[in-house]
Amino acid sequence: MKKSPVSPSFIKQRARQIKKEKSLSQRQALDEASIESGYPNYQNYLNTLKMSEPQPATAEQIHELWLDKQKEMTKKLYAVLPLFENFKIPINSHPRLARADSESKLNLV
User: Fold this and answer.
1) I need a labelling partner for 104 at 20 to 30 A (CA). Which of 16, 38, 54, 84 fits?
2) Domain residue extents for the chain
3) Cβ atoms 86, 39 nearer than 8 A
4) How far apart, in whole angstroms, are the C-alpha atoms of residue 109 and residue 107?
């Protein structure tokens, strides 16, 4: 019977303790720690851990997610667009733009 899932760091930490207590090899200690956690051996624990990881999304799922995010961003852009429609900065009020403007007039002469 399996116990609740445990983290790999817990198994490894327990294995280090067992290794010191019983003078076992690292592999044997990992097996012992896995058995204490309810798994037949360490490799079985790793396989179970790997199986519980979320599977990569399919191309269709990624495309749907991308479309949803695109729609979301479009809504946000349209929400703030009215704030910027009538927003004007005089070119002379910005020092870098004013300098670039005066330099371009000098180059034209």
Assistant:
1) 84
2) 8-52, 59-108
3) no
4) 6
What's the token pair of residue 26?
A: 């690292």
Encoded tokens for 84: 């910027």
Contacts of 40 (CB under 8 A, 6+ apart): 34
95 is written with which tokens? 């020092």
CA distance 11 to 34: 6
Question: Tokens standing for 48?
Answer: 């179970």
* pLDDT confidence of residue 109: 47
Q: Angle, nearest 10°, between helix axes 26-36 and 8-22?
A: 120
- Which residue has tokens 């330099």? 103
Percentage of the chain surpassing pLDDT 90? 44
pLDDT at 95: 65
